Amino acid sequence: MPQQLLVTAGEVYPGRGTTPITDGAVLVDGPLISAVGARPDIEARATANVARFDFPGGTILPGLIDGHVHLAFDPTQDPPEALRHLDDETLLREMADRAGAALRAGITTMRDLGDRGGLAVRLRDEIARGDRSGPRVLAAGTPLTPPGGHCWFLGGEVAGSEEIRRRITSLTELGVDVIKVMVSGGHITPDSRKPWEMQFTAEELRRIVDISSELQLPVAAHAHGTTAIAACAEAGVSTVEHCTWMRIGDNPEIEERLDVAERMAERGICACPAWPSDWRSLLDALGADVGKRAIEKMVRMRDIGVPLIAGTDAGVVRSEHGGLPAGLELYRHLGMAPHEILDMATTDSATALGIGDRAGRLAAGYDADILVCDGAPLTDITALQAQRLVLARGTTTRP
Ligand SMILES: [Zn+2]
């Protein structure tokens, strides 16, 4: 019989659309949740030798989901330079350490959107087999980019439609969970296209999405400029990463292309803003006007009904691994209530990433991915940082 755990707290929040349970409990059998409800009812179902964890002043929540990380990156170093000096085995060990740090911060699922040589897939499998402890990893492998394009140094350069097909086929054989494509330039590859410029044509992007969907894989598209975002909306990607509606160059403002945001909303294409966990220093660096405008654009997108998911781009500058709890405070500036932010970072993200049938909620039969915090994160999002216990598929970790 698997080890049974009983976790009790002053409040239990099972996820979007549920009412918090006062004086509640969660019963865990092996890797799965077996019951959630009022403490006396759940206690009655526990075996005599159950292991107990009691947090009368705390709140039990579903574990957090970081929808955009790079385990291969160290936020204190320049990625191309740092990676040049690391062999695969050393890099894999560093990635495992970073995944462990994220787990201790309450992140029980992460989507890695760009590794080197499929190392995030290897790490995912080692964790899933129980060879290492860590969060559930969804891995994109190495992102597709044109020759010399954004993040070319990870090894995913492709030119022309035949190479695109071959690359997606080999990523599928490797077992990736999602295809990542660099539709626009980015900030960490200074010699490539600018963040607001398209790198692939709209036709190439359509082809990438079509091939991926034939192979039953969603596409996560990195796109900053409005023109790139419009191509993503038309091609039918699953998530648009960053989605900053940059208006430099020939890119219009979001206000001039509300049709694009409406199309995203209509097709259920999510935006993952992927602001770094130290978003405050990014806002400072952008300056008051640009920062205010960046927030306004996110609010606009949300008002139109574009679904948002949580992500931190962990591994890039200003974004340490495990920084999601602090990063989520940004969403208070979008006018989101703490419980809406929690729903975004749990239930909504699980649904968007295709794992909504086993993660993102506390319910019988779901994976036992659980976070316990002191205080009341449903009304005060900063309480997410007062963590007491993390469970990843039934295995306990102390923050
Ligand atoms: Zn990224």
Automatic annotation (TrEMBL):
Spell out the PANTHER family in the cross-references.
ALPHA-D-RIBOSE 1-METHYLPHOSPHONATE 5-TRIPHOSPHATE DIPHOSPHATASE (PTHR43135)
The Amidohydrolase-related domain extends over 59-386
Q: Which InterPro entries match?
A: Amidohydro-rel, Metal-dep_hydrolase_composite, Metal_Hydrolase, Metallo-dep_Hydrolase, OTAase-like
Superkingdom of the source? Bacteria
What is this protein called in UniProt?
Answer: Amidohydrolase family protein
Q: Which organism is it from?
A: Saccharopolyspora montiporae
Q: Name one GO molecular function term.
A: hydrolase activity, acting on carbon-nitrogen (but not peptide) bonds
Q: Which Pfam families does the UniProt entry name for this protein?
A: Amidohydro_1 (PF01979)
